[in-house]
Task: structure prediction
Amino acid sequence: MTSVRKFHPEVRLKKLLAESGGITAGQALDRANEGLESIREDCLAGVDEKLTQLTQLAASSEAERGKQMYRCANEIFAEAGAFGLAELSAAAHSLCSLLSNVEDDRLPSSAIKVHIDAMRALRRPDVSGNAAARAAVLSGLRGLAKRHAG
Result:
């Protein structure tokens, strides 16, 4: 007959959370949001730079440009999501999906250009402030992605 011994290692975080004092989860989230807001403009300027890089890569014949564009779009996806720009994040995700399904020599340049133009439009105040316009942009990208998926 074998016996089973269970070992439960001490988890430092669990111990710290059980102690009194410190900050609450709500306070921690508020601090995190304040921190994000303090870097918002710099990060969104970085998103605009990445859109410029995407445009340059799309026009180039550089080897592995698809992988480079994917990385750029993935960073936009993450940064836009962190700042609550759901439609911009979704557009970047759509471009990532498009790029992940094709080889560099078969990149659909017109579809890539449409995605980049859509992301640029979503950065403009007239579109970013209009829920119907944002929805229309995403609807168009979904249709485009469907045509290139099959």
